[in-house]
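During the reporting period the student researcher (J.K.) took over the structure-prediction task from the postdoctoral fellow and processed the backlog of single-chain submissions. One of the processed entries is reproduced below for the supervisory committee.
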Amino acid sequence: MQAAYLWQREHFRDPDGDIGTGIQDDENTSNSLSAQALLNVYLDPWYQTLGVLLEGRYETLRTVDNLPERRGEADVEGPLQERTNVILALQDEILLFGERLALRPLLRCQFVANHFGAQPSFRNLPLSLDQETQDHLFSPSLGLKYALAPFFDLKGNVGRFQRVPTLFELFGDRGTTIGNPRLKSETSLNWDIGFSFELPPQGWLDRLFLEYAYFVSDADDLIVFVQNSQVSARAENIGAAEIRGHELSWSATALHHVRFYGNYTYQDAKDTSDTFSQGNALPGRPRHEVFQALELFHDWGKVVYEFTYTAMNALDRANLFVVDSRELHNLRLTLTPVGPKLTLTFEVKNITDNQVQDVRGFPLPGRSFFGTVEGRF
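J.K. obtained the following structure tokens:
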């Protein structure tokens, strides 16, 4: 059983209206309390493993507008937005044909209860909401894996999935991201098929792993962020979307101290809704993405170099505004001077100080330095 609590406060201040939607001084405070329990029942005589997952989450969000204080008035405190989320997932793993075939049927049931304050406002834009809403979502899926050889597995998954919009998508941050309380839950039919290959140790080569999947997703009311002005973005539902792609992952370890790993994703994501944007690329879905890392590790720690490439992608549904492709280089040093109980990490991100934008058109940090100290007891 696990439990977690997260308190977060964000202060967005734009006194000259340079990057937000007008002059702003807002504070967003969110709370998240969650707990989950997992129970596995092993039925060895029947070559089955039953799993039950129960998860609960309670979230709140409140925004305070500090601008009226400048005019001698009290701060304007927005209404409290509350959400209760309960998930029950049931899974059965069935082993057949001498454990060469594994079937994993899964049923995920989700109950979401929202209590949203009436008429929250974003400056002079009213965001009308129902105060009380409830959603019941069901996501059945089936996964299978067949061991064609000791080092080669065939894999596949199929399922129907539903997702409710997050509080961030509904209410934004009152800064560069505008909330859209009229968002609907998205539904998709997903399936993938592929293989995994793992070579046992061979001389100086400790491990070689390769995995490939072809994936398909047909979605209704897909939620994507769309740039709706030069300085702001908003989550919108896409009536229908079609996504096809390939994903390749690899990992190789050699000489007991060198690891080379990464992944590549190609996706063709199209808007298939019966609107003006039919046939266009989905916003924020680059066609090519590459991640590659080289790691040197030892008992005292490790050094990791990372390279990321993201292809050009559209910002809006009409595909009139695009973000250029970008390359980022990162370097990380991790030290464990007294073992796993104390970890010291030093990072340099965006080493070349590449001035780039993310998929929503907002500037990413230039060269940045980070230090982390982690202790375990």
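The committee noted the following: The two ends are 19 Å apart (CA to CA).
J.K. will present the remaining backlog at the next meeting.
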